[in-house]
Automatic annotation (TrEMBL):
<feature type="domain" description="Glucosamine/galactosamine-6-phosphate isomerase">
    <location>
        <begin position="13"/>
        <end position="213"/>
    </location>
</feature>
<keyword id="KW-0378">Hydrolase</keyword>
<protein>
    <recommendedName>
        <fullName>6-phosphogluconolactonase</fullName>
        <ecNumber>3.1.1.31</ecNumber>
    </recommendedName>
</protein>
<dbReference type="GO" id="GO:0005975">
    <property type="term" value="P:carbohydrate metabolic process"/>
</dbReference>
<comment type="function">
    <text>Hydrolysis of 6-phosphogluconolactone to 6-phosphogluconate.</text>
</comment>
<dbReference type="InterPro" id="IPR037171">
    <property type="entry name" value="NagB/RpiA_transferase-like"/>
</dbReference>
<dbReference type="InterPro" id="IPR005900">
    <property type="entry name" value="6-phosphogluconolactonase_DevB"/>
</dbReference>
<dbReference type="InterPro" id="IPR006148">
    <property type="entry name" value="Glc/Gal-6P_isomerase"/>
</dbReference>
<dbReference type="Pfam" id="PF01182">
    <property type="entry name" value="Glucosamine_iso"/>
</dbReference>
<dbReference type="GO" id="GO:0006098">
    <property type="term" value="P:pentose-phosphate shunt"/>
</dbReference>
<comment type="similarity">
    <text>Belongs to the glucosamine/galactosamine-6-phosphate isomerase family. 6-phosphogluconolactonase subfamily.</text>
</comment>
<comment type="pathway">
    <text>Carbohydrate degradation; pentose phosphate pathway; D-ribulose 5-phosphate from D-glucose 6-phosphate (oxidative stage): step 2/3.</text>
</comment>
<dbReference type="InterPro" id="IPR039104">
    <property type="entry name" value="6PGL"/>
</dbReference>
<dbReference type="GO" id="GO:0017057">
    <property type="term" value="F:6-phosphogluconolactonase activity"/>
</dbReference>
């Protein structure tokens, strides 16, 4: 079941999500999955200004486009510019996909799966207007994957077409799953998530954490 935290605007959502994120990673080894998008990057920018110890935090990425990390479309690159380049996180604790150099996508997926922890402490998720999360779009093979935690995508309906993504089995391995959702264009999808709609049509409705699932929502 999803718990809904409503906010009057994006700024309040970011403040609350960042404060709660800080509580998750405080004084412990933590494995967290970051997400792109306006709200996801906004949370990272908030965290940059907080006095936190990142030395025992391991970060992963929900998905990545087949571009180099210095490309403007790279989720890892955006996360580095927003947060990771500005805090005391060890370089070895940043677990990227290593794409953009012609590497075989299926090989990249297998390699990434091999470094994942058994469980995540927190998986942050953005959401598209049609309900997609990571690179899991409605009625696609990647969304329907029920075993592998990482798969390559060659036909993403949202450009660029080539990506590597964590799957629902990976999402379900997280203790906490937080959906960060803001904007009028996402109202219908957010309502579908709250109503427990068919996840094959609305992928975000299939995002469930082992201990909690929270929709941080500013319409």
């Amino acid at each position: 079941m999803v718990t809904v935290s409503r906010y009057p605007d994006l700024a309040h959502l970011l403040d609350d999500a960042a404060a709660n994120f800080a509580s998750v990673i405080a004084d412990r080894e933590a494995h967290v999955v970051l997400t792109g998008g306006g709200a996801g990057i906004g949370v990272l920018e908030k965290l940059r200004d907080m006095d936190l110890d990142w030395s025992r935090v391991h970060v992963y990425f929900g998905d990545e486009r087949n571009v180099s990390v210095d490309h403007e479309d790279s989720n890892e690159g955006q996360a580095r510019r927003a947060l990771l380049d500005h805090v005391n996180i060890p370089a070895d604790n940043i677990h990227g996909y290593g794409l953009g150099d012609g590497r075989d996508m299926d090989e990249a997926a297998r390699t990434y799966a091999s470094i994942l922890p058994e469980r995540f402490d927190l998986h942050l998720l953005g959401m598209g207007g049609e309900g997609h999360i990571n690179s899991l779009f409605p009625h696609t093979a990647a969304l329907l994957e029920d075993t592998a935690k990482v798969v390559a995508v060659s036909d993403s309906p949202k450009p660029p077409a080539e990506r590597v993504t964590l799957t629902l089995p990976a999402v379900h391995s997280a203790d906490r799953v937080w959906l960060l959702v803001a904007g009028a264009e996402k109202v219908e999808a957010a309502e579908k998530v709250m109503a427990g709609a068919d996840w094959k049509a609305w992928p975000a409705a299939g995002a469930q954490g082992r201990e909690e699932t929270v929709l941080y929502y500013a319409a």
